[in-house]
Amino acid sequence: MNRLNSFSIFLLTCSFLLFTACQESNYTNDNTEGNQLQQLQEKLAEQETDLSYAEVRIKTLLNLEENYPLVHTVYLNLKESASKLELKELFAAIEKLHDIEVVHNLDIGFFKDLQDKRALKDLEWVFQMRFKNEASYKIYQEHPLHLALKKVAKPLLDGPPVTHDFMSQP
Fold first, then answer.
1. CA gyration radius for the chain?
2. Angle between helices 144-153 and 134-142 (to 10 degrees)
């Protein structure tokens, strides 16, 4: 929580400095400077919004580290014969995992070739989620939405999924 308090103080300080800079230019009577002041105030409002979003994201990440330390990653190697419709259905089935109450921070991604010789190029799709503990993970494993995903995925896979689980260290 210390990191969050420090970051909040940093955000407030930046906002104050930006606000003060805008206020100083308010003392001029020149119409052009009035327009500049308005533009600066609009930029300040945009930056305050951006800072608010960043603060929410940081709080979310800190909460995830503290409350959902078990990370489950799944890699999929898909058949080349899979149609676009089948892949769309697979993606939708993975997205449905959001609806399982014990699943947190579900991310879905696709292989990006960065010319690293060590890359697992055959594992084109990956998704990752977090759990509070092993009991939550076991609930996910037996959940009907997870079982439905397995049913959709099975005919599209060119081999069994590869998984990796670890405990995140705050």
1. 23
2. 60
Pairwise CA distance, residues 33 & 167, whole Å: 55
- Is the pLDDT at 17 greater than 90? The verdict is no
State how far the Cα of 114 lies from the Cα of 120, in Å rounded to an integer: 11
Q: Which domain holds residue 79?
A: 70-167
Give me the percent of the chain exceeding a pLDDT of 70: 75
- Count CB-CB contacts under 10 A for residue 77: 18
In total, how many domains does the chain have? 2
Contact of 74 with 57, CB cutoff 8 Å? no
SS3 96: helix
Gap between the Cα atoms of 154 and 161, Å rounded: 9
pTM score > 0.70 for this model? Answer: no
Tell me which of 23, 46, 66 is where a domain ends: 66
Q: What is the per-residue pLDDT across 86-132, written as a single tens digit (0 to 9) for each?
A: 999 999 999 999 999 999 999 999 999 999 999 888 899 999 999 99
CB 56, CB 4: distance < 8 Å: no
Do 80 and 56 share a structural domain? no
Q: Which among 66, 81, 104 is the end of a domain?
A: 66
Question: What type of residue is 5?
Answer: N
Round to whole Å and give the CA distance between 127 and 44.
Answer: 37
